[in-house]
Amino acid sequence: MDNIYNEQQQTITEDACLAAIATVKEFLNKRIIGQQHLIDGLLMALLADGHILVEGPPGLAKTRSIKMLASCVESHFHRIQFTPDLLPADLTGTEIYRPQNGTFVFQPGPLFNEIVLADEINRAAAKVQSALLEAMEERQVTIGRKSYHLPPLFMVMATQNPLEQEGTYPLPEAQLDRFMLHLELDYPSAADELNILRLNHSESREEETPDAPKITQLQIFAARQYALQVIASAPIENYIVNLATATRHPQAYDADLARWLSYGVSPRSSIALLRCARVRAWLAGRNYVTPDDIQYCIYPVMRHRLMLTVEAEADGITPNDIISILLQKVVVA
Predict the structure, then answer these.
(1) Residues 240, 269: Cα–Cα separation, whole Å
(2) C-alpha distances out from residue 100 to 104, 108, 143, 291, Å
(3) Do residues 231 and 293 touch, judged by C-beta distance below 8 A?
(4) CATH number of 230-329
(5) In 3-state terms, the chain is what percent helix, strand and coil (to 5)?
(6) What pLDDT is recorded for position 211?
(7) pLDDT one-digit tens code per residue, 172-204
């Protein structure tokens, strides 16, 4: 079965993959206005085989974006509203006893969908958040003594609201590290908001919602393989490693960095950065990674993995500030 699956994937051309993704992106740009970074991030995470954490005030199309993306992908979508009373079994599923034959039957939870939206993830307790760890990293869940594999295409998009922190549970560092990208959303410009108003009015008058273009899972897996073939030269690889190393040994680069950085990024960050840079280069029609690809991707890849000191917070320093300094201090060899 796997051989047949691989053969079907190999018959999909690179041009066909690029055309399908371009069609999806055009559709998303028409339906989600003023959040270009969010659209780019969603497509990047999808093609880089990673999960994404989106942070922003309510009403900035976070939920709408992932639902629109799911409508364009040949997949099953499920939205989970995280609340304080949520239980781990509400995500993973549970074994149900059947008295007819005296056996237990596993009832899959919402994590057994290809695209999962974890809405307001920081509203749930730590034990529920930790239930995502195995699913996000190992692509499986364990119930009792048995493990169940998740679908080959599996993507989690989590959202959180940075404004209201009462009754929330901050995500632990181990779980934050499982997210490939962390996007920060801001309010749209006045021109974009005017277009949003007009789009909302237009949609409310439409008798039928326009059909979303469909991209198959085979096309997604093929696109991932094409993106992995993008060349990353030795200087580019060294650039990534040097950026990661600078977060762990900041005293070698800048005295302020040493005061502001408590812990640096893990090797998982370097892997994610190179994968995202390859995807960005491939979507741009290039077969090689440039320093610009690294410098674009480093913010969403690293900002949630950096741990700042109390002194940095007192000085009003953000992870974005740290990354900007890193890009100034670390140069391409």
Answers:
(1) 9
(2) 10, 20, 22, 63
(3) no
(4) 1.10.8.80
(5) 55, 15, 30
(6) 80
(7) 787 888 999 999 998 999 999 999 999 888 888
- Contact present, 181 and 41 (Cβ < 8 Å): yes
149: three-class secondary structure by DSSP: strand
The burial of 83, by beta-carbon neighbours within 10 Å (0-12 exposed, 13-18 middle, 19 or more buried), is given as: middle
In the three-class reduction of DSSP (H, G, I as helix; E, B as strand; rest coil), residue 291 is classed as helix
Q: Which fold has domain 19-204?
A: Rossmann fold (3.40.50)
CATH 3.40.50.300 domain extents, the chain: 19-204
| Count of beta carbons in the 10 Å neighbourhood of residue 27 | 18
Please give the Cα distance from 333 to 331 (Å, whole number): 6
Q: Comparing 89-103, 166-180, 281-295, which segment has the lowest mean pLDDT?
A: 166-180
- What is the Cα–Cα distance from 244 to 248, expressed in whole angstroms? 7
How far CA 121 is from CA of 37, 80, 159, 239, in Å, comes to 21, 9, 6, 33
Nearest CA among 29, 42, 68, 16 for reference residue 216: 16
**β-pair type (146-149, 140-143):** antiparallel
pLDDT of residue 154: 95
| CA–CA separation, 309 and 316 (whole Å) | 11
